[in-house]
UniProtKB/TrEMBL annotation:
Organism: Kineosphaera limosa NBRC 100340
Stretches assigned to coiled coil: none
Protein name, as recorded: Polyphosphate kinase-2-related domain-containing protein
Native organism taxonomy: Bacteria, Bacillati, Actinomycetota, Actinomycetes, Micrococcales
Residue intervals of the Polyphosphate kinase-2-related domain: 21-229, 261-477
InterPro entries: P-loop_NTPase (IPR027417), PPK2-related (IPR022488)
């Protein structure tokens, strides 16, 4: 791809186009994308001193600054290393109708590393592919550029910049890269080819002439946005071929008669909480991030199970994330965005009281998401959780199940004793019990790979459920620590 760009030079379709005309065109397209609620992500990567800043400046010069943002993807910081690799990508994605430009890209680290082992390399690329597939499937325009210059051109620019009074124009990394140009060129070519996805291809631009490179980038961005605006409505309305059949009746097989006496419960609870607290501390010492998801029927006892689980935890080690319907910024981003903003750092614990699984349950049943959106979410969620576990995260998923009679009894009790915990929505969801159970069975069946299995908890007896959650956490924590 690099040699091809150098031999081709400027793409012929943009050779006679005036840069000012392209800027006017992009200005119009920005307004149209905003009106359509279409997010646009432009990643400008390339060799050091290849003119990324120059190209970016001319790309954005005439745009409404209220509708775009720039994120600099420099070398990883210590804070970046605390989280899964793709988190900073997700945190920086544009909201509906906005344009975001990455100065460098999430690929910069991969391109400039010569010491990654093969498994880690493959895992990172797999995660990036899943991310960009999820974003483009959701209607985001993703345009990726690599600005290519020769080693000789890079050396010349380094010397030019070194003589400039503005010393910030170059850094030690520029010279480091120039000294290793040949090895890095092989590495960059490999990364470009392996991440040249059909849904988010690379555009390698000959940047030997800065103005021509800026024209080419402007033209490609304009064409990409215009094409996406043209096809956006037809893609959204395209019929979905849903081949999945009837899910297995997983919840129907749950032994809901399991129960503990008060004496058995009291005897086990304290020691298990103490052991769980000690394991939470060991996970922190080992820098292992832990993420726990709690889903289940309304009134199944998720909150009570969480409270008993964390009783022995150091409160500095965990954070609970209650998940309600998305609002504000959350609603204007991809549905996974808000969850990536709340992942645990290494050695910390994040607990989600409801989670991204709402996409394939409530959003499915209440038609807040289209069939295409919730159906592809199964694959998106599996890919996301695979990145988590590939990165060494302890991931536990609990589904607390109760039968309709037990739920009604708990609703009636809440109405009497804790009316603030009972909502009209709870009653509406109950009326759709069979629909929800079908969706839940499919969810459990399709999102229980070996790396991220569901633990279905029999919840008719609250005491049994709480002990079951504690024992499961202890077992899984011991496994990952050993």
């Amino acid at each position: 791809m690099l040699d091809e760009a150098r031999e081709r030079g400027m793409r012929p379709e943009y050779a006679d186009v005036k840069r000012g005309d392209l800027k006017d065109r992009l200005e119009r397209l920005q307004r149209q994308a905003a009106d359509a609620g279409m997010p646009v992500l432009v990643q400008i990567d390339g060799w050091e001193c290849s003119g990324k800043g120059y190209v970016m400046t001319h790309l954005l010069r005439r745009l409404d600054a209220r509708g775009f943002s720039v994120h600099v993807f420099d070398h990883l910081t210590d804070e970046d290393r605390e989280y899964v690799p793709s988190q900073r990508y997700w945190q920086a994605i544009p909201a509906e109708g906005d344009i975001t430009v990455f100065d460098r890209s999430v690929y910069t680290g991969l391109m400039n590393r010569l010491d990654l082992d093969e498994a880690d390399d493959e895992a990172r690329i797999e995660a990036l592919a899943a991310t960009e597939k999820a974003l483009t499937d959701d209607g985001m325009v993703v345009v990726k550029f690599f600005l290519h210059i020769t080693r000789k051109q890079q050396s010349k620019r380094i010397e030019e910049y070194a003589s400039d009074a503005r010393e910030v124009l170059i850094s030690p990394h520029d010279r480091w890269q120039n000294r290793r140009y040949k090895k890095l060129a092989v590495r960059i070519e490999d990364v470009l080819e392996r991440t040249n996805f059909a849904f988010a291809p690379w555009h390698v631009v000959d940047a030997g002439h800065r103005k021509q490179a800026s024209i080419e980038v402007l033209g490609i961005v304009c064409d990409a946005i215009e094409s996406a605006l043209t096809t956006r409505e037809s893609v959204a309305q395209a019929p979905v071929d849903r081949s999945y059949g009837t899910p297995p009746d997983i919840l129907g097989e749950v032994p809901l008669d399991l129960a503990l006496t008060d004496e058995e419960y009291d005897e086990q609870l304290g020691p298990l909480q103490e052991e769980a607290g000690a394991l939470a501390y060991r996970l922190a010492q080992a820098d292992i991030p832990t993420l726990m998801v709690f889903e289940g029927m309304d009134a199944a006892g998720k909150g009570g199970a969480i409270r008993r689980l964390i009783k022995g935890f150091d409160p500095r080690l965990f954070r609970i994330n209650p998940t309600a319907a998305p609002e504000g910024k959350d609603k204007k981003h991809h549905y996974l965005w808000r969850f990536y903003n709340n992942l645990p750092a290494r050695g910390r614990i994040a607990i989600f009281d409801r989670s991204w699984y709402g996409r394939v349950m409530v959003e499915r049943i209440e038609e807040f998401a289209t069939q295409a959106e919730w159906d592809r979410a199964f694959g998106e969620i599996n890919a996301m959780e695979k990145e988590f576990t590939d990165d060494g995260m302890l991931l536990l998923k609990f589904f607390l199940y109760i039968d309709p009679d037990e739920q009604l009894a708990r609703f009636d009790a809440r109405a009497q004793d804790k009316p603030w915990k009972l909502t009209d929505e709870d009653w509406r969801n109950r009326e759709k019990w069979d629909q929800y159970v079908n969706a839940m069975n499919e969810m459990i069946a399709r999102t229980s790979p070996p790396n991220a299995p569901w633990t279905v908890v029999a919840g008719n007896d609250k005491q049994h459920a709480r002990i079951d959650v504690l024992k499961t956490f202890i077992e899984r924590a011991q496994q990952i620590l050993d």
